[in-house]
């Protein structure tokens, strides 16, 4: 067996064996001694007996980077090609490949890897090692596998410049690109952490990134969460226990009534790292971004890959998942309606149920509470209904929506998406009541404690107040920018503006987070309908609900007066001052208004601009765009289009978030298209719209849902807290008992 014994270059020095030389060094040059001690301690604490295993395609720089990392850690460096394979075979790797052929080479390479053992070392794998499952299982047992992820075009350029014409798998009729793309599936299967490596990044820089990634992997203490309303005490002022991603996914709302945010902020990507994702698919971009936002101790990279594939692999009707379409002039549409329930909510709610099911303890049942102004309801019902049967037995969901505050098709969809573990309840009030009621239920410790003790059931949230809901939204904003670069519309680094129809501020906040992570977004434009409290706030710094009544509009998803995620944004620009946030939102709750300080208003207005649109202008925009382009906007996208037209300066592209498919709002769309007689049956309305042969076509999932279910039964309750709590208890009894 090929074995490398771990050796120490320094040893722990006890008082009894302290040499006079070391003692002199400590006394005469304490800084130098401290640096030597710190270097030794950090490297050996980082590795222990584990290996750092570098994996990636040929040309990724594994050998060079491995040597640098080994020098920095002062530990043995082993190159599998040079130190193991060629030593074992007594011939070069290329000679071996030529003599035995592709398949036999992989087998013999894997056998050699299985006989190899090392500890406390840096190991550079061959490009084809990951293709042998047993060999990788063996070496991974005692190591952290680091994937050097280099764009395929960069690898091809490097190999061609070196004159490399033979790699494992290359044969007549199979291109080098095909071989490299084929291998990616094996690299993705085995890595623990990924390091993005651009084309012009120096090996020294990559080596530092490897060390940083390994340190992150070893220390989950770095990625904790706090409440927007607390001091840095792990999420509430009464409990000093730290909270991690898996905790905030299941808990939803902080005990002090605040919202969870990462204590150290979001990860930053370099320009080179973003550029390395230009050629990537949507799911590949999602994987890379979410790996940086979710610590592997919470969800390992391999499991996260499974979850992302389950969410986006087959559930979206467009292969690009979130395509960007040119509308007119400098305006582009980010189409976010290709998911199963035809709105942007699908991006989060096809993913979050799987994250939730993975993170929750197996010893408890969970009831998810959701309030919706329209699109969230069907999306969350569909998402949780796709869980495995064993997970459905321990996870149920109840969706509260304003009984008379959503479109007829949205209502039919929410009723039709009910499953054995998911129900819809209409409330005789508006969305703000539903959302406020859920927050109050979560902070009612007597009620939540009773449910836990009596029924073994905990409550959780899946609204955009849940941190996990925001992460997938960051992905599509970043992906839209990268798509414009890939299409040659802009070069990386050129700014874009983003315009979003905004109610609860979650989508807007996600765009701002993408900007913080390195996407060159210039202005985030907030588009409101006649419920324009956010527009007034962004313009004046005064959030004032006094005398305001919710107005029903043709864009019901933004018929919202209390924007929950605004709290996270104010916490951010307020230097994470939990006391300030508490003061502002307590004043809003008790007095119906608050006002920002002038310095915070100036900060806000550097990031955000806002406008609003009437129903009349919304319908006119739908008609105008259809007449000139043959494309039908939904009512929310039309609101954003009107505001974008008014506020953009046309000096850069503007990406308008198309947050829902027009099929969901058929009566308003038919009115905009100036149809005189509109049948009240939702299915008939969709058939009429389909006769226009417009772009995009009628949404397949929505049409199928309405065909199968029609208007089924659902519960309706009064706008009373005690009634809602009674409904919750009854549902728990029926499902879990």
From TrEMBL:
Record domain Threonine synthase N-terminal: where: 239-312
InterPro entries xref list: P-loop_NTPase (IPR027417), Ser/Thr_deHydtase_PyrdxlP-BS (IPR000634), Shikimate/glucono_kinase (IPR031322), Shikimate_kinase/TSH1 (IPR000623), Thr_synth_N (IPR029144), Thr_synth_N_sf (IPR037158), Thr_synthase-like (IPR004450), TrpB-like_PALP_sf (IPR036052)
Gene3D superfamilies on file: 3.40.50.1100, P-loop containing nucleotide triphosphate hydrolases (3.40.50.300), Threonine synthase, N-terminal domain (3.90.1380.10)
UniProt keyword annotations, A-Z: Amino-acid biosynthesis, Pyridoxal phosphate
Swiss-Prot/TrEMBL cofactor(s): pyridoxal 5'-phosphate
Keyword presence, Cell membrane: no
GO MF entries: pyridoxal phosphate binding
Pathway the protein contributes to: Amino-acid biosynthesis
CDD domains hit by this protein: SK, Thr-synth_2
Gene Ontology biological process: amino acid biosynthetic process
One GO term describing the cellular component: cytoplasm
Residue numbers bearing the N6-(pyridoxal phosphate)lysine modification: 345
Family stated for the protein in its record: Belongs to the threonine synthase family.
Protein name, per record: THNS1 protein
Organism from which the protein derives: Regulus satrapa
């Amino acid at each position: 067996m090929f074995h490398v014994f771990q050796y120490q270059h320094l040893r722990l020095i006890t008082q009894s064996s302290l040499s006079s030389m070391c003692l002199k060094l400590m006394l005469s040059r304490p800084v130098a001694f401290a640096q030597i001690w710190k270097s030794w301690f950090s490297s050996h604490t980082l590795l222990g007996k584990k290996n750092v295993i570098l994996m990636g395609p040929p040309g990724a720089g594994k050998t060079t980077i491995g040597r640098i990392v080994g020098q920095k850690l002062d530990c043995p460096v082993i190159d599998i090609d040079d130190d193991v394979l060629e030593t074992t075979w007594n011939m070069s790797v290329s000679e071996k490949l030529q003599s035995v052929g592709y398949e036999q080479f992989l087998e013999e390479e894997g056998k050699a890897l299985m006989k190899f053992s090392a500890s406390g070392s840096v190991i550079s794998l061959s490009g084809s090692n990951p293709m042998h499952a047993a060999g990788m299982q063996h070496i991974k047992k005692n190591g952290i596998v680091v994937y050097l992820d280099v764009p395929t075009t960069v690898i091809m350029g490097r190999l061609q410049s070196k004159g490399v014409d033979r790699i494992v798998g290359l044969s007549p009729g199979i291109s080098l690109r095909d071989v490299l793309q084929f291998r990616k599936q094996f690299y993705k299967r085995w890595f623990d952490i990924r390091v993005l490596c651009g084309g012009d990044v120096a090996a020294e820089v990559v080596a530092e990134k490897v060390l940083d990634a390994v340190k992150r992997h070893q220390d989950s203490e770095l990625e904790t969460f706090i409440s927007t309303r607390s001091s840095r005490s792990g999420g509430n002022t009464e409990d000093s226990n730290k909270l991690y991603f898996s905790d905030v996914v299941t808990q939803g709302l902080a005990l002090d009534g605040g919202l969870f945010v990462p204590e150290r902020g979001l990860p930053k990507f370099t320009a080179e790292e973003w550029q390395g994702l230009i050629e990537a698919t949507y799911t590949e971009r999602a994987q890379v971004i979410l790996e940086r936002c979710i610590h592997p101790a919470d969800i390992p990279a391999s499991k996260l890959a499974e979850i992302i594939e389950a969410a986006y692999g087959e559930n979206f009707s467009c292969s690009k998942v979130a395509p960007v379409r040119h509308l007119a002039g400098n305006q582009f549409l980010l189409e976010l309606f290709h998911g199963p329930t035809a709105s942007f909510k699908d991006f989060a709610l096809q993913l979050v149920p799987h994250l939730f099911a993975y993170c929750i303890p197996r010893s408890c049942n969970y009831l998810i509470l959701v309030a919706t102004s329209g699109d969230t309801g069907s999306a969350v019902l569909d998402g949780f209904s796709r869980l495995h049967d064993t997970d459905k037995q321990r996870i149920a969901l109840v969706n509260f929506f304003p009984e008379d505050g959503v479109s007829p098709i949205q209502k039919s969809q929410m009723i039709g998406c009910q499953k054995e573990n998911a129900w819809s309840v209409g409330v005789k009030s508006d969305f703000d009541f539903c959302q406020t009621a859920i927050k109050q239920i979560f902070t009612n410790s007597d009620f939540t404690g009773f449910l836990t003790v009596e029924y073994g059931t905990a409550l959780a949230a899946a609204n955009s107040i849940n941190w996990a809901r925001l992460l997938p939204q960051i992905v599509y904003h970043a992906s839209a920018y990268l798509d414009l670069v890939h299409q040659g519309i802009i070069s990386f680094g050129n700014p874009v503006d983003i315009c979003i129809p905004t109610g609860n501020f979650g989508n807007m906040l996600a765009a701002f987070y993408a900007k913080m992570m390195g996407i060159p977004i210039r202005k985030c434009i907030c588009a409101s309908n006649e419920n324009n409290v956010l527009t007034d706030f962004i313009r004046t710094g005064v959030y004032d609900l006094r005398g305001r009544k919710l107005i029903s509009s043709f864009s019901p998803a933004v018929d919202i007066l209390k924007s929950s995620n605004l709290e996270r944004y104010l916490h951010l620009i307020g230097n994470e001052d939990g006391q300030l946030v508490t003061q502002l939102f307590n004043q809003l709750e008790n007095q119906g208004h608050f006002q920002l300080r002038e310095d915070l208003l100036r900060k806000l207005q550097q990031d955000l601009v806002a406008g609003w649109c009437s129903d009349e202008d919304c319908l006119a925009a739908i008609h105008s765009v259809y007449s000139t382009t043959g494309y039908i906007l939904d009512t929310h996208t039309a609101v954003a289009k009107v505001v974008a037209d008014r506020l953009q300066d046309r000096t850069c592209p503007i990406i308008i978030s198309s947050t829902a498919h027009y099929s969901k709002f058929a009566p308003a769309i038919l009115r905009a298209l100036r149809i005189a007689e509109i049948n009240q049956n939702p299915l008939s309305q969709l058939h009429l719209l389909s006769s226009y042969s417009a772009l995009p076509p009628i949404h397949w999932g929505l049409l199928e849902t309405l065909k199968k279910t029609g208007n089924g039964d659902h519960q309706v309750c009064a706008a009373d807290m005690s009634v809602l709590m009674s409904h919750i208890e009854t549902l728990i009894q029926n499902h879990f008992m």
